[in-house]
Amino acid sequence: MRELEREAEWRVPRLWLRMLWVGGVLLAGCLSALAAKEFVMPGARPGRNYPAHDEHPAEKITVAIDPYDVETKASIFSVKYRNFDLVPIFFVITNDGDQPISLVGMKAQLNTKDRSKLLPENRDDLLRRLAHPTRNDRTNTLPIPLPKKEVKGGVSSKTMEPIDDARFGAKAVEPHSTARGFLFFDVTDISDPLAGATFYLMGVQDASGKEVMYFEIPLEKYLSAGEAKRP
Question: Which of 45, 83, 183, 222 gives 20 to 30 Å between its CA and that of 65?
């Protein structure tokens, strides 16, 4: 009888330990799932449906931009680009014509109110920025030259994959279709970079290879639309 009582006493703590272990496994699984959340590209509306757009009716081409400068929008990224002085801008180009257009020679540019001319960061620029590299740039005053320290830092594959998925990479836009993706601009030392800024797009070519007139989009079109509450 006593042996049965002792066995019953042991079963209770064992049951609690098992429940705690199962709960820990489930919690770890949930955290892992959140950490592994994949980037999902936002769907694109026709360009003319965005407040900040420029339409060329003769060529039937519309270019639109939608900055992801507020947390409610930027939360689609696992990286907080604002902390790295980077502004992601959702770029949309709609071809309503009957012939494809070429973007091979496309050049985007953001002109800020202080007349800075910013080009989108390429993949390598983004990776270097996100890697937080550290260098020993101090001048060596010793008579014996010291070996240079390697740049430390790196970007995980979990960070690289969303960058590759998010960046705009289309080389053409088929008839009656829309291409979209993100352009990332370095706004280091620029306060309120969107205020008074203008976005330009050049180098778009029609089916005959002729370059169409550049597109010009004042960012005030976006800021005055009130689609999102800015900080």
Answer: 83
Query: What would the two tokens of residue 167 be?
Result: 């960046």
Q: What is the pTM of this model?
A: 0.74
Q: What CA–CA distance (Å, rounded) separates 10 from 14?
A: 6
Residues 100 and 211 in one domain: yes
CA distance 216 to 98: 23
pLDDT for 130 equals: 86
Q: What is the mean pLDDT of each run of 10 residues along the chain (231 residues)?
A: 54 54 48 56 96 97 96 91 94 98 98 95 90 47 41 56 88 98 95 96 96 97 73 42
CA separation for the pair 64, 218 (Å, rounded): 11
Which candidate, 69, 77, 86, places its Cα nearest to that of 228? 69
User: Which pLDDT score, from 0 to 100, does residue 139 have?
Assistant: 41
Q: Which of 54, 33, 83, 11 is nearest to 216 (CA)?
A: 54
CA atoms within 13 A on the CB side of 110: 26
Listed residue (222, 214, 215) closest to 193, CA to CA = 222
* Domain boundaries, position 183: 39-133+152-223
Q: What's the total number of domains in the chain?
A: 2
Looking at the structure, do residues 90 and 115 belong to the same domain, yes or no? yes
